[in-house]
Task: structure prediction
Amino acid sequence: MQEDASDDVLSADQDSARGSLPLALSRAAASFQDLASSVGMRVLQWLHWGKETVKTRARCSPDALVQMALQLAARRYFGRPVLTYESASTRRFHLGRTDTIRSCSTEAVNFVNAALLRLQLWKQNERSTGPSDDNLAEPSISRRGASHPTINTVRKLFQDACKRHKQLSTEAGLGQGVDRHMMSL
Result:
């Protein structure tokens, strides 16, 4: 019986595949270790208050509070509002996946602007008079005469931003967000 030449080719390919698979796995593991070691992470366990405190004291959802904090932090870091992405599940629909919640709304920008102006005033007062809770007193006029938002104004703008975030979250969850529709076009 004569051997088929294709059997030789097949066995040669199998031998090289067997030899390269462990090598490829080893390289992949080393690459993963390099990548994993370059990631820094710190865990903070916060025990002072939780979601119920946020709901009762801040009168907003914990998600909205975090999104507004991200907007404020991003604005302070980058010096301008930044677009953010938060996924919303559309699992209630057949084959539903996700849609996008865009938390950088006009209301969020208004809140961030007011909060930053208020922070600026607080820092100015602290430099001139020293640390004190009185630096947050109402009404607030800076030394240059420019009016700064009051704490109550900042609180109202925060509430408006959180309500808008909740509205956008609900719309996205109901399939009424804009990102997936625009992507389909």
Remarks:
- The beta strands are 86-89, 98-101.
